[in-house]
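Workshop exercise sheet. Pairs work together: one partner reads the sequence aloud, the other fills in the structure field after running the prediction. Swap roles for the next sheet.
Pair: D.N. / O.F.
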Amino acid sequence: MVVFLAIFLFLVPAPVRGFQHNVSELKTWFQGMVGSSSEQGFGQRAEQNWSWVNQSIIAVTHRLTRPVNYNQDNPAKQPAYMNLFNLDFRTANWVVLAISLAIGLGYIAVMRPPARLTPLSEAEELGLLFCLMTVASPLARQYYFVWLFFPITILMHRGAFDPRPAVRIGTWAALVATGLLMCLSLPVFPKDLQAYGNNLAATAVIAAGLVWHILHPPLEAKATALSPAGGELQPDMQSIAR
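Structure field:
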């Protein structure tokens, strides 16, 4: 990925735009985006990115661990805070790194080895990846959570077709909880609920449901696995027919 980015962002445009202009623009982009993080904000709209508008893991963790005015996007509003701790900016970043590392290692831990992969588990792992991509991004505004349509669809499939009645009920209960949490973003509800991360919580519910399904597949799914020798899918046709 690093090699491709170097080629795509630096070498490919250079014959047209010139190496000097290309390098200058990359430096400006890095300073304005990646290197602009501070206690006041980050990115192009710094006044928004620590506020309630952003529901990423980074932003919510900072709002919970240090005194951040989550109404700073609107100077006309009374400052409001939700921090449970009074950490400094540097320490809050270490907390973000620790949480991110724990989530990343957890994702690796629940992934199945190649010999035990099934079409169901692959879909669930991909849906879980979509959840992590959404909330691990430095910016996760309300419309970013459209990425959850895919993992939600996977859970709806499990709720409709899983052969275990109790699992179907539990899956639909998780989907209902997800929907209720997301509805808290509607204008009739106070913005404070978004500051606390209602969509982030909804993503966590979806991710928990997908993890449960990865770790507890139905018996029919266990009969479908990747062949260790050829690496091709070997479905149990009788199970599929049932």
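Discussion prompt: Strands lie at 225-226, 233-234. What would you look at next?
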